[in-house]
């Protein structure tokens, strides 16, 4: 190893130790944690040292709640990589600390090594403490709206454009007269749309429709 290679290696070692997150590799068959970066976050979020996490092997992923975390992060991820080794998989999961508490982690993963037939043999994953995201509260609010739209995209698609528009206004707290004036429609037409929304979401109160709009990320003006 020449000097430049050594300096580069030291740079990556320092990067892994100081980054506010951690990296780890997963062997696919058998499924177990093969390597974990020497990061303080590893101990903070698990209560174990990197060496102890690796000794747990296949038990480390089992520190995730079975539903939905283990299903979506491990089982669904394995299935996705089996279909396409070049696929990227990510999301969030809760990891059980040694004291029994659960810590939220955001992660992303990709194929690190392929077998002779092109199948995924090893994954490389990066985890970031979810608590870090709350340092940017206003941006986080925007992100929550974005995430809500993604989660409830099918429900939104089942509504007409006018229903979405009216639901967004109800979510903002606008009264039917305000909505009718804004959209230049009759109050009777607004009431008709409201009845359709009540039926669609199986509710009978405006406060319920308002909560549904907020949960689905439908805000006014809707974008």
Summarize the structure.
The protein has 223 residues and is of the alpha+beta class.
Explain the layout of strands and helices:
Layout: H1 3-18, E1 22-28, E2 31-36, H2 40-46, H3 50-56, H4 66-83, E3 89-96, E4 102-114, E5 120-129, H5 137-151, H6 153-157, H7 161-171, H8 176-183, H9 187-201, H10 206-215
Antiparallel strand pairs: 1-2, 1-5, 3-4, 4-5
Helix pairs in contact: 7-9, 7-10, 8-9
General description of the model:
The model has no long low-confidence stretch (mean pLDDT 92). The chain is built from 10 helices and 5 strands, in the order H-E-E-H-H-H-E-E-E-H-H-H-H-H-H. 20% of the residues are buried. The protein starts with a helix and ends in an 8-residue tail after the last helix. Helix 7 crosses helix 10 (206-215) and helix 8 packs across helix 9 (187-201). The protein is an alpha+beta fold and 223 residues long. The chain is elongated, with a radius of gyration of 24 Å. A hairpin with a 5-residue loop joins strand 4 (102-114) and strand 5 (120-129). The chain has 2 domains: 3-133, PAS domain (Beta-Lactamase, 2-Layer Sandwich); 136-215, Response regulator (Rossmann fold, 3-Layer(aba) Sandwich), CATH 3.40.50.2300. Strands 2-1-5-4-3 form a 5-stranded antiparallel beta sheet.
